Amino acid sequence: MNRRVFLSNSALLGFAGLLLPKSFFVEPKEIFTLPALPYGFDALEPHIDKLTMEIHHDKHHKTYVDNLNKAITGTPLEKQSLADILATASKHPAAVRNNAGGHYNHSMFWSIMAAPNTNKPSAELAAAIDKKFGSFDKFKEEFNKAATTRFGSGWAWLIVTAKGELAVTSTPNQDNPLMDVVPEAERGYPVFGIDVWEHAYYLKYQNKRADYVTGWWNVLNWNAINQRYTEGVKSKKK
């Protein structure tokens, strides 16, 4: 006579555990995670539309995070900080360089924007801008030129250089001034930057990048930018 043996779920798992590693039963932990948007998707309207923000954050940025985790899982890089990975970008595969840059750049991008308000550059940042560029208007003109003339996809930046001075630069694709692939004279701490990939503006502005750049100035979070400037200056004094 056939005898059937019924095992409880715990007994089955215990038996399977003899054959499979414990990690098989544990959900893998993400190394890097998608930061929450610090405001509603529609908070930047009419300058940046709700649908663009939804797609940009939930699709594009999430893809960079997912692909970065995939690229570094099981390698020594999974134990490194994002800053360390960026600083040695030239030594890593394209998948690491591109997605690490995409994650950092977008995390910064969300933080330096906010619903239109009246905050402005701090006295220290305003003085540094005047010293370097002559006036805020001249700085804005140079920054807009860097953003609108960046061929293809990329970013325009205001950075604190190794000498502690301000500079306007631009980078292709998802590169940024923290990477060692950037010319040394253009490296530094990003105070703020603008994403000029078409996915950042195409739904509302179509091919009119200049209009997008002009509108974007209305949603800058100068309180956050002022703090980043202070951090940048401190980092160059160490």
TrEMBL record:
PANTHER family: 37S RIBOSOMAL PROTEIN S26, MITOCHONDRIAL (PTHR43595), SMALL RIBOSOMAL SUBUNIT PROTEIN MS42 (PTHR43595:SF2). Mn(2+) binds at residues 56, 106, 195, 199. It catalyses: 2 superoxide + 2 H(+) = H2O2 + O2. It comes from Xanthocytophaga flava. GO terms for cellular component: cytoplasm. Belongs to the iron/manganese superoxide dismutase family. The keyword Metal-binding applies. Residues 32-114 form the Manganese/iron superoxide dismutase N-terminal domain. Residues 121-228 form the Manganese/iron superoxide dismutase C-terminal domain. It is an enzyme of class 1 (oxidoreductase). Its EC number is 1.15.1.1. This is Superoxide dismutase. It holds the Pfam family Sod_Fe_C. It comes from the Bacteria. Keywords: Metal-binding, Oxidoreductase. Destroys radicals which are normally produced within the cells and which are toxic to biological systems.
